[in-house]
Amino acid sequence: MNQSCGNRMGRASAWSRYCLKTLAGAGSFVQAHWDDLRHAAAVIGTALGNSVRPRYWAKAARTAFQRQVLAIGVEPVGFVCALAVFVGISVVVQLTFWVGEAGQSQLLGPLLVAVVARELGPVLINLVVIVRSGSAMTTELGVLKINGEVRALEAQGGDPFLHLVMPRILGMAMATFCLTIIFILVAFASGFFFAAWMGKGSRDLLLFANTLSSAVQPKDIFNILAKCILPALFASASCCIGGLGVGKSVTDIPQATQRALTRSVAGLFVISSIVSLLTYL
């Protein structure tokens, strides 16, 4: 009997240790991500605060900002348009067809706005920007840090934040917003023309445009803006933090890039979910 009680007490003790270890691990995980979130929020807030002060926009900062907008928002336009065409053909045409078949044509505008403009557009474009430009941004800053160029900039009296971080954060946010608008317009246009060509929808372009415009509400505009800009700000801040946080070895760059991309993608879906909940509930 004493042995049985001892076994039960041993199992209870092991279970208690396991629970404590699990709670400690969960606490460490939450604490680490909370620190990352606070760090990113501080970087974003500083960048936005400095951006409205003309004296912080030196020639080097303006040049870096223009280069970021060109690299992130102009070079991938062709790919974004091709992606929008596929989405327009696969989503817009199907919605147009099935709404007509169900005799619920009045739902076409709200459905298109909800599916393409509010959800698919911002999420897909942010994913494209994160994968395409976020990794390049982290790698570039990591190389600058390892090569000592960041320290050299400081020695010359320059501010690495104003010359390296702020232009990248603002450039990615602006580029993501512009690409999202292009994606939405091309998706709607390609879907309309393909459906009209296949004979599956109305051929009245003005009627189609009026259906979409009448379905857009002020909260939809806020939703699109928030889902475009906020994830892009967080992703760019995470990539800048990851790139400038590497050590002295080149082997640290892939790990920093992986962590930055993981945080960026997770932040994208978390921010999108929170925006949707705050907007429509």
What percent strand? under 5%
How many domains, in number, for the residues?
A: 1
The radius of gyration computed from the alpha-carbon positions, rounded to a whole number of angstroms, is 24 Å
Total count of strands: 0
Contiguous uncertain segments of 5+ residues = none
Helix content: over 70%
Task: For this entry, give a set of tags.
single chain, 281 residues, mainly alpha, 9 helices, 86% helix, globular
Structure commentary:
- The chain is an all-alpha fold and 281 residues long.
- The chain has one domain.
- It is 86% helix and 0% strand.
- It has nine helices and no strands.
- Helix 3 (77-101) runs antiparallel to helix 4 (108-146), helix 4 crosses helix 7 (205-215) and helix 4 packs parallel to helix 8.
- The chain starts with a helix and ends with a helix.
Compile the SSE list and pairings.
Elements: H1 2-51, H2 59-74, H3 77-101, H4 108-146, H5 149-155, H6 160-198, H7 205-215, H8 218-244, H9 252-280
Compact summary:
The chain is mainly α. Helices cover 86% and strands 0% of the residues.
